[in-house]
Design goal:
Elements lengths: L1 E8 L2 E8 L4 E9 L6 H18 L2 E7 L10 H15 L5 E5 L1 H8 L3 H8 L16 H12 L4
Parallel strand pairs: 1-4, 4-5
Antiparallel strand pairs: 1-2, 2-3
Helix pairs in contact: 1-2, 3-4, 3-5
Length: 152
Amino acid sequence: MNTMGVRAKPGEVTFAVYDAAAGALLNVETIKIPKALSTPDGLKYVRNNILDVIREYSIEHAGLRITESSAKTKSIERIEIEGVIQEAFASSCLKSYYSGQIANVSRRLGFPRDQFKRYVNNEVAFEQVENWTDLKPEAREAVFAALGAQHA
């Protein structure tokens, strides 16, 4: 069973594909939205790429790490991208999916909320994932969303 986790930020989307049966990370990649695209075309670009990844890797379950409601500065662009990703999940052949903030993702992984940032900031190595220290923070969050999707 393959799962996918996604973490958006303005101008790009990072996704991770995890093979739950083998316990292995298959791919971590970033989709950069071309600056030449208008906002609607950029959102369409994200949607099409997410659907392609779901088909290519036969993803069954997915998770999206969404913006914290208490964030000091909210990015409208990130929120728009997250909405399009959720719509792509809903219109795909996924068996299940979820979207969650730090507390939700942490709960699915079975560790306290305060540990999430420590792992993401690489203060503590996450031993379950090979080459954890080589990943960027957004990729680590996408990996966590993919791991949490096993329980979606």
